[in-house]
Amino acid sequence: MQEKVDTKKTVIVGASPNPQRFAYRAAHMLSRYGYPIVPVGIKKGEVAGKEIQDFRQQPQITDVDTVTLYVGPGHQPVWYDFILGLQPKRIIFNPGTENRELEQKAREQNIKVVHGCTLVMLQSGNY
């Protein structure tokens, strides 16, 4: 396990209680590495000991460093306002979530756009 220099609260967009999903794996790995997580999705349940917050309830989350995205581009538009409203420092577009429109909106708000895999970033010490 790597040492963190700071705490990066991470909102997992598209969180899932399904162990086969990458969002599930990311939640557990982020927790193991000591990062505080807030799982948000449309599936009920819990992941890594945290209740998945229902996106449709528009949960209020503050002090967000990172949004790690696990929602495909075709389903992202309804998430735009929520994601951008979190005012994260960065959004990680995991493989298969790349979306030029959301990326542009993020850049316009000075949010760093990262194309990468949260799991690989954690394992390689580049999170």
Silhouette: globular
Major beta sheet, strand line-up: 5-2-1-6-7-8
Mean pLDDT: 94
Main beta-sheet strand count, sense and barrel state:
6 strands, parallel
The share of residues in helices is 25-40%
Classify the beta-strand content into a percent band. 15-25%
User: How many DSSP H or I helices?
Assistant: 4
Structural class per helix/strand content? alpha/beta
How many strand units? 8
Distance between the termini: 12 Å
- The SSE string, one letter per element, is EHEEEEEHEHEH
The low-confidence parts are: 1-5
Radius of gyration: 13 Å
Task: Summarize the structure in short.
The protein is of the alpha/beta class. Helices cover 26% and strands 21% of the residues. Strand 6, helix 2 (80-85) and strand 7 form a beta-alpha-beta unit.
